[in-house]
Design goal:
Elements: H1 9-60, E1 64-69, E2 74-78, E3 83-88, E4 93-97, E5 103-106, E6 116-122, E7 125-131, E8 137-139
Antiparallel strand pairs: 1-2, 1-5, 2-3, 4-6, 6-7, 7-8
């Protein structure tokens, strides 16, 4: 009997074909997962930034304004004089806001000057961050 060591060319081709099939199935799912993950991450970051503006307004006993620029997918938090935070979204679009003037201001008691919705989207769908008059923020 022969002592066979190694693989035949047919075995190698079969393994390569199986790997190609698995890759063809997995890659589109990975791309979709990354886009969904990016949208979710940007939504949670925006909610956290709303909460940051509110908590800084209470802590510093001043007004904090968060303003949106839907044209370049960015927003910033200011205290009227200084920019506290500025953020550009790269993989997610700010589709629009229902906030008057595309901004809201938190006062020293944590209340919002107006309520509204900020809609974020990408190829996989959209999410909404909602702020109400008493200053609470939630994700829809």
């Amino acid at each position: 009997m022969k002592n066979n060591k190694g693989f035949t060319i047919i075995e190698m081709v079969i393994v390569i074909v199986i790997m190609a099939i698995l890759a063809a199935v997995a890659v589109p799912n990975i791309i979709s997962w990354r886009a969904k993950s990016s949208l979710g991450g940007d939504t949670r970051t925006l909610k956290a930034d709303f909460e940051l503006a509110r908590s800084r307004a209470i802590r510093d006993n001043t007004n904090m304004t968060i303003s949106f620029n839907t044209g370049n997918n960015s927003y910033s938090i200011t205290n009227g004089v200084d920019i506290i935070l500025s953020r550009n979204l790269t993989n997610t679009s700010i589709n629009g806001t229902t906030l008057a003037g595309d901004s809201t201001t938190f006062d020293s008691r944590g209340r919002s000057s107006n309520s509204g919705i900020v809609t974020l989207s990408n190829d996989t769908g959209n999410t909404q961050v909602v702020v109400n008059m008493i200053g609470t923020v939630r994700i829809n």
